[in-house]
Amino acid sequence: MILETERLILRKLEDTDAERMFLMDSDPEVMKYLGTPVKTVEESKEIIKMIQKQYEENGTGRWAVIEKESGLLIGWCGLKLLKEPINGYVETLDLGYRFIPEFWGKGYAWEAANATLKYGFNELNAETIYAFADAGNKGSNYILTKMGFENTGEFEDSGVKCSWYELKREKYI
Ligand SMILES: CC(C)(COP(=O)(O)OP(=O)(O)OC[C@H]1O[C@@H](n2cnc3c(N)ncnc32)[C@H](O)[C@@H]1OP(=O)(O)O)[C@@H](O)C(=O)NCCC(=O)NCCS
């Protein structure tokens, strides 16, 4: 286990999470601002492998979010070390999250992201944590702003207009 909140457990993704990951990433509603939905469980297995490699190489990555009450994987949340530049930033920590629609609207994104930020500042000793979202993704932009992130500009990622966010440790802790 990496983190525990009142209602959630955040832990590393495991091979056995593939079916739940597929349920999430094959859903067009989830992927509305994120790209093409995956089509096979095999693709989800490959994604899990890629993230597991990031844990090994970078010491961090997106984590499975487990709802304590049901024991189910309900999404992922975590800090990814950017290895390819995004908006000109590289080797910086990027906060990300995504959840299965059945679990939206319960405050889980906020709960998971808040715990993740604490971990980033306290355990990974980040000075600044970054995030970005499709400019049209109201929910995500709202959550980032509510968490204290500062919107420092817009940029294009693969032709999509995105908002860029930064949160400095002194603003958070
Ligand atoms: C965006 C997403 C993570 C929100 O998850 P969630 O668990 O429903 O969010 P929460 O319940 O923690 O909501 C936190 C706040 O955001 C608001 N919010 C959430 N989704 C919203 C939306 N679509 N539009 C406006 N506000 C929204 C909530 O009302 C809540 O506000 P409050 O705290 O003032 O009451 C979820 O919809 C999702 O997984 N979407 C698909 C993947 C995605 O877009 N990920 C982000 C990529 S940058």
Automatic annotation (TrEMBL):
Residues 8-171 form the N-acetyltransferase domain. The keyword Glycosyltransferase does not apply. It comes from Chryseobacterium ureilyticum. InterPro entries: Acyl_CoA_acyltransferase, GNAT_dom, N-acetyltransferase. Keywords: Transferase. The keyword Transferase applies. This is Protein N-acetyltransferase, RimJ/RimL family. One of its GO terms (molecular function) is acyltransferase activity, transferring groups other than amino-acyl groups. Signal peptide: none annotated.
